[in-house]
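Hi X.,

You mentioned you wanted examples for the new student's onboarding notes, showing what a folding record looks like when two proteins sit in one file. Here is a clean example. The first protein comes first, with its sequence line followed by its structure tokens.
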Amino acid sequence: MDVQDIIDLVQKSEFFKTWKETHSHAYLAHLFFEQEQCQVGYFDHSTEKMTTFFLQEENVIESQESEVFKEPGKKILFLDIAKVHINPQKALSLAKKVQEENYHGEMVFKSFTILQHLEIGQVFNITLVTQAMKTINIKLSTETGAALQHHISSLMDMARTEE
């Protein structure tokens, strides 16, 4: 299923129509993919909250509003679907090529993808979790699929900084 089909499913649902009546200023901010799960997030700048719609198969099953975790002074940017020229499956495939070329010794066991608009542009922000407890983060252009950024981090280092 491509991104536009997912958005159409959400926006045609009764959950979304009812919610949109009281959130007219909200706009599409992200799509989150993990295996067969998909979440679509809309940000309402008037409340500074994100409402996430969950898709299960082809049904919108629930939504929830929550606080947004963002750096102070950063804005949640509008996600323009017209600028998404590759689908999430292709993006994940391209990210795995970046991983094989740059981090070939790392064995990946889990991945998740966030389609979002960041300061560097609209990206597929892909995180690959490795068996060595590291994360490989790859940001791909939604228009070309080119790798804009990539790096590897140890989950153990992240845990130490939080103590």
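Then the second protein repeats the pattern, sequence line and then tokens:
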Amino acid sequence: MAVNRRQVLCTVVAASLLSSRSQSTAAQSTPVAMSAVTPGYAIARVRRLPTPDLAAAIVPDVLATFLPRTAALPGYAGYVFSAHVTDPTAAISLTLLADQAAAAAADQVAREYAAALDPRFVAETPVTDQGPLRIYQTTKRPATELSPFLNTCLFTMRHRRNAPGADAEAVITRNTNDLTPKLAAMPGFVLYAWLQTADGRTAINIWETPDQQAAGNEVVAAWVAANSAETTTGPPIVNDGAVIYADIPGFI
């Protein structure tokens, strides 16, 4: 997967924004601090704005206005914001939370934030996946070896629907014991999460480079074909992004 010009520009602009925002919050002594809450629930969304320009223009306000309100909630455990790689009007967000109660509060913040925006920023939300995190694995490498805020890392959100009668618990056990350790041992691995949704499961992957992401995708595809293909129905719904900002426990 190649990162196009818009994603490169977006991440450069975001890096500059984050530098100034860090200085500003430090002066106020109220930074968005890394959460000590253990992630137990997640909300993953794809949001689409009317034009690419609007999608890029809203990034500073998301980070400066929306994120601090979400991060102040009890049960907040992390956040990732990515520019969509193939849709220049879209962004992908992942909110990590302690539990369903915290997720409900985060949903309310999102609704209030959207309602207060300039009407030009009216958005469609073609994908909203949320549910308990059944698998959550991060790299063991120190944050100093990773891109700050995971800026420019590659994000994949892959949703699969359960087939009728699928034994999801057996798949989770096999995944935890086999696939997750394989991915975690690969070069460039940053994060793997598996959230249980109302109709199936959504897997989140973060890798450092496109080549490492492609290698991880091959391992995932081979594992699914051999271990869980019969438990799903239809093709997966895949959304890829380039990380603009991540606030995840252990990554600064």
